[in-house]
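hey m, so remember when u said the C-alpha cells were messed up on ur end? i reran from scratch. heres the input so u can diff it against urs
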Amino acid sequence: MPPIAQINDLWFALPPIVVVSLVYAASRHEDAGPLLRHAFRAALWIVGFMAAIFVVLELLLRAV
C-alpha cells in the first residue's frame, strides 16, 4: 500500500486520542479551563508517544 493511502488510516486515531485525553483530564480537573489545557497537553503526549513508537518500528522494519 503506498504511503499516501496509509495517511487516511491515521484519522481513525483522532477520536480515541481526544476521548482518552479528555477523560484523563476530567479525572484531575473539574473546571473547563484547566480541564481543556490538561487535555491538550495529554493529547500532545499521546501523539508524541505514538510518533516515537512509529519511528522505532519504521527503523526496525528498515533494518530487517
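this time it looks ok to me. The chain has one domain: 3-63. if urs says something different then somethings off w ur setup not the seq
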